[in-house]
Design a protein that fits this description.
Strand order of the largest sheet of chain A: 10-9-11-8-7-12-13
Structural class of chain A: alpha/beta
Oligomer: homodimer
Strand content of chain A: 15-25%
Number of helices of chain A: 14
Number of domains of chain A: 2
CATH class of the largest domain in chain A: Alpha Beta
Distance between the termini of chain A: 50 Å
Low-confidence stretches of chain A: none
Radius of gyration of chain A: 24 Å
Mean pLDDT of chain A: 95
């Protein structure tokens, strides 16, 4: 089927999804989870074919991401069941206004319509993204990476079976069949058929969407996150947080990439840091290099999302310098200050223009689950619509429903 | 100055705007209003030059829009004072989450940063848009039409004087000096310098922004609004509402352009309508033309924003047909049903996917003031971020402010 036909089918299914009750959507999600587990064997065979073709063409890390087993499928099913358990965002009344002329106005959350997601090779994104978009009352069009296509197709087949069993249209979930660049371009420009496009993946994919899309896009992901250790920091707390933010999971977007240290604490702090995280390559500004050994930092090191055991380190003269540096180099994801000085913290929290700003905590908490949203579709680094973790509410739009008895203006 | 330099200046001023207190912003707005009135004479001279150059090149309606007088300037000043009186959206805590691990999370409204507005020739948009953007804590970059440039420059000069008098940076308000197409393109693609772009004007301008912009855009304006007169409508109420929605101000986006009438009421209703609004040219579908005289409607008449005393009329077989027609032809702005049947109304309100859906009231109420927002920057017809009237809250974004005592993950 062409991508355009698939989009038309998704679009035709959106009214049924929008009208579905919470119970019906939850029943569908549970049936999708069951179908995923029931079809485990065929999903694993499809995955084996993907892995075989990919062997030698992609890195071991990528191969591991692509690879499925019974446990991973069970945890995908569990993820869908967790989405079923979350409150339904659709129909929530966000504000009520009663006007002097008798008009009753309800600002009410409603589904987006068709949500398209362009992603790369992790098969679990297929089920996560589908569950979230469908629970939010939208039809869902998935466009995954070529390497994972057979796995994704087997997963989507199971999920569609679950939808059908609960009386919702299978067409509300589409996996784009065309895995060439052409189909991604079609999604980006399908004005009137795609209500929201979410790219989930590397910086290149996200840039391509932002530059080429004429449909509404939410940018997700890139995180050059900073931790600033103030002159008034508790050094033990700062060591714990920097270690956690850098090393607990270096490959994720909320991991720390840059450490800024106030000059007054640098001589004491940096040697202890070096001893604490010996597995991390430190890329040092000249003043940091005068205190501890490490690789001299190039300019690009302060603008790089390493996603690895690498940390750029810079000594700054003041809180203000730290804020200016972050303003120039942050991707607006998550940035933290470690300090006992409440005034310095307030200045930092107010001045740093990022989705999440922290005082005395690790940047690793920027996550839908950790924020109490129950789930997330990604972390938005743009300012329009959703900023930070996007949960079910952020996957909805709203409309004004106005009831009168003949009012004219 | 080049547009890029102007954007850099606005960007440099945004921190001061974001940090300004409510009192400081309100003082600035009142000083801006005073300066506008104090400089009335020089604004009128500039306007006279604009009018002179435009004479013969633009229509009389456009000339009237462009033209200023003392009363119009006084009402622009009054508009700014009204914005000063509105509550400050910045710093509002939208949600508080206290996590089991002790993290305290506040989702807080913060300014966008730099808001750019591309508009056409109404001088009053200059002061309205500036007041709203500045009150929302953002720097504001205005790019008006060539015909009104001297007027806009005189207005902005006065407004900047007001800013300066109250201690806020003049550079927070910029009127783009280059009035060629080049500057509009620069604004559309100034990623990192423009946080939000709002086009205010005709369909061509809005389409150009949506197609070419790489910065975040909110589409405003185009309204092909429908009124559906159901079989169970009170015909007197329906006549009042159709007359109001069509004729009270035909040139605005919330005016009715298309009337749908249920077949069971058409024979009674259409002759009364014809008599009620004789000044309106009716473009009739064949079934309507069999009942009353009028112009036969071409296909395009059901997809045209007339903004004039013209109404396309179609007889439909059912509520469902009305909903399908609206789904295919509405611009998603405002659509109404007139009926005594609560069930039919609920189906309509749920199924019609527009920013504002009305039961027994005129579409003309879609307006920030009428919705109780106090003001508006425009009416969004997109689903992302803001839908319907955009007030001060919709001109803000939010961030998560997280306070801990050493939490790691």
């Amino acid at each position: 089927m062409t991508t355009f036909e698939q989009l038309e089918r998704a679009s035709a299914a959106k009214a049924a999804m929008a009208a579905a009750s919470t119970e019906q959507k939850n029943r569908a999600l549970l049936a999708m989870a069951d179908a995923l587990e029931a079809r485990c064997a065929s999903i694993l065979s499809a995955n084996a074919l993907d892995l075989e073709s990919a062997q030698g063409h992609i890195s071991d890390v990528m191969l591991d991401r692509l690879s499925l087993n019974e446990n991973r499928i069970a945890s995908m099913a569990e993820g869908i069941r967790q989405v079923a358990a979350l409150p339904d965002p659709v129909g929530q009344v966000l504000r009520i206004v009663d006007r002097p002329n008798g008009l009753h106005i309800e600002k009410t959350a409603v589904p987006m319509g068709v949500i398209a997601i362009i992603y790369e090779s992790r098969p679990n994104v297929t089920s996560d993204a589908a569950a979230l978009a469908l629970k939010a009352g939208s039809a869902c069009v998935l466009r995954g990476g070529k390497e994972a296509h057979r796995s994704a197709a087997a997963i989507v087949e199971a999920l569609r079976l679950g939808l059908e069993r609960s009386g919702l249209p299978q067409d509300a979930l589409q996996l784009v069949e065309d895995t060439t660049r052409q189909s991604a371009n079609e999604l980006m420009t399908a004005v009137g058929l795609v209500d929201l496009l979410i790219p989930r993946g590397g910086a290149g994919l996200i840039r391509a969407c932002v530059e080429n899309a004429t449909v509404n896009v939410i940018e997700t992901g890139t995180g050059i996150c900073h931790v600033y250790v103030d002159a008034e920091a508790d050094p033990d707390m700062a060591l714990d947080i920097v270690e956690n933010a850098k090393t607990s999971r270096p490959s994720v977007c909320n991991a720390e990439e840059v450490l800024l240290v106030h000059r007054d604490i640098a001589e004491e702090f940096l040697p202890r840091l070096k001893a604490r995280i010996p597995q991390v390559e430190l890329r040092l500004c000249p003043r940091a290099a005068a205190i501890i050994p490490g690789t001299p930092a190039g300019d690009i090191d302060f603008d790089t999302e390493f996603l690895d055991y690498i940390l750029a380190v810079k000594v700054v003269d003041s809180l203000e310098d730290a804020i200016v540096h972050i303003g120039e180099h942050s991707t607006g994801h998550s940035d933290a200050i470690i300090t006992r000085d409440a005034r310095a913290a307030q200045v930092f929290l107010r001045s740093v223009d990022s989705a999440a700003v922290y005082w005395n905590a690790s940047t690793r908490f920027t996550d839908g689950g950790e924020f109490g949203l129950g789930c997330e579709m990604g972390i938005s680094t743009q300012k329009l619509h959703a900023r930070g973790p996007m949960g079910l509410e952020e996957l909805c739009t709203y409309k004004y429903i106005i009831t009168g008895n003949g009012q004219i203006r």
